[in-house]
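Problem 3 from the worked examples.
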Amino acid sequence: MRPTDLGTTTHVAHRFGRWRVQCVALAALVLCNVSAVAIAQAADTGDGSLGEAVTFGQVVELAATSSAVRAAEAQVELTRRALAAAEYPVAASASGEARSRTGFGGQGTDLELDLAVNAGFRTGWGAAAEATAAAERSLEAAIDALDAARAGAVTQAVRLFAGARSAAMARGSAEIAWQIASLQAEAARSRYAAGAALEADVTEAELNERAAELDLRAAEATYAAALTELSLLIGTDVSEAVGDMPGSLGAGVVRREVALAARGDVRAAKRDLEAAADALAQATRATGVTFSANASLAGTLGSTSLNAGASIDTRDLTPSVSGRLSTTTAAPRPGGGPGLSAVVGVGASVPLGPPDTRVAAAELAHAQAEARLADLTARAELEVAALSERVELSAARLELAESRAALARAAHEAERERFDLGTVGVLEVLRAEAATVTATGAVVSARASYLLDVMALAIASGRSVTEVLK
């Protein structure tokens, strides 16, 4: 017994009934194709009120300029300005004061003026060099944070794009399942009208149709939620995720020390080690004997005096100069002729009291920072090796999924040809189409897993995610 056009093994008694069922099935198939074409054309119109269709490349580009990335860019600019301030060669301040002095004994009113200048020179050693190095480390940390924010946004965009594509495939499968259930319900009603089926058969078919319709509505809601999440991430109202994701990125990575040194966490560990070395140098200078040297020059001429001086000590090794000019309109004191004097001095400060533990604590912190860097580098080697194997496995799974999808498409085309020849019915064609959609969805999932693994490998090996996706 050969299956009828509806895929059943029950013959309808009257030819009129069989012809009626065939017409209904063909009409449903044509209506389905027309509706699909209409939906696709509506999506291609790009109606602003319904959002826009976005490709994988557009999603990656928009994610790379998301709000989180822009905030990280602003932080980088701020730290650049802080570094420029730290590298400025002179830190100076000036102050001035004008006063009036009135004597009530008939001396009248005199004006006084004081001007003072203090300046410190930022040199390439000591506290000034350490402050500049700290500012440089802050800038490097901000740049690493920017790279991490961009990588995180792009990775999330890939996940959400893949989720939207998978949701679209699931919606397509649910729609085909509903179509099949509708055709089976119509066939059951036709057989019941012809006396070839029971009322229970019709009830069961209609319940299956209702369940398939509910599944379709749930799939549509899931797809809408996926598009909403994608829209929130990239800041654009998305109506559809179109196009395929890259299938091959050439993710080979050479595991070298230079590559691992570009990792964000390794760079952070190196900055911690440098900061610990600076802290050790500061503790060493602070706990030892501090020597200082200073020189000053003072001169007076009438009611005007000028003082200038310079000093430096071994605690911060930052030379500084100061100057002060004072003048008044009052008459000079009797016997106060012009004068000039110079003072040169050296000093020493010796700490007394219990032993200072600052150097020992700084040495311990430095040793711990070295150990963390070595441990992190070793772990990075293992992580890159594991991710390299995972990428190879993901690539193999993607190739397998693509092969299965190709077989499903070929089977679908064969079923359509058999339908044209009249050897199979509409249900067989729809089932083959459902298998094709399922296989395509598996390809989307496998490709997303492959991309995410490649991106994780790029991050682990110190490479830029956006460069890998280009």
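Problem 4, a separate protein:
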Amino acid sequence: MTEARQAAPAPGEIRWDPEAAETLAALRTGPRILRAAFEAALLVGGLQAAEIALLGAGGFAAMAIHPFWAAVLLVSLQHGLYGGLAAAGLAGLALHWAGFVVHGAGAASGALAAQWLASGLILGLLREPQIRREAALAADHGRLQRMNAALAREASRFDEIVRELEVALVTRPDARPPAAEAALLADLRRAVPAALPARFAEAMRTLLPQADAALYAETGEGGPSRLAATADGFPARCAPADLAPARSPAPGGRAILGRGPGSVGFVDLRWRAAPSDPERAAGVAALIAEAAVAALRDAAAAAAADAR
């Protein structure tokens, strides 16, 4: 990772741990109590309004099971201990407000409120460890997702570094600076179909002046078709029998680069002169073919997207 590894804390030193702080923040009870109280108020208030509108104040008293039980149980299971206590308290207040005490049902209403309080307490205590475990798991999941994204960014950055090192190793030190040669490959990689032949020819002339090459696209009809060539002698259509030559950096040698299962194109390369460093020249040829075929692949994907 890009951040320097932190040294271990000295004995007795107190150090801030962001991961532990994140988990503790997920377990904070203040926001959860407010949410539980809000939901309990909505449920109890909605039931109270329905009672007054449909049955009149105290209309729920005639029912075998008081509807406020639903609010107490639902909030207890959803928000745990604090939600259960909040729902039970609000339900008890609404019960008394509805006029049961005035009607001589104080003992009954008090017993019912006590039952709600006991139910909210018991269910809340049973549900509380699960809620805390779920909150800790959610915090860990979010932290792991961020770590995964950071690792993906680092992997992409390292891929770019490796590619730059490959270009620096396989290109000629006495020619252009490696950055300029990398820019040629990047331009070829990003070339649109109309500019691809010119970019391909420029990369070949600059990076591999001792070779001629042609860029072919896999059309699927009549064999691969030629898109660009740096010299004459490359056929407009490439016969299947010509696609498996031996790779040789010697004068007159030939190589097919970038062709494989599912490929959209390839480079047919022919050496006019033996390179001074065959291994480095082969690496340069592979990079050119990879960039050209990648540009073909992007163009094919864009055409398919436009067709849809």
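Solution to problem 4. Residues 3 and 35 are 37 Å apart (CA to CA). Residues 1-6, 100-104 have pLDDT under 50 and may be disordered.
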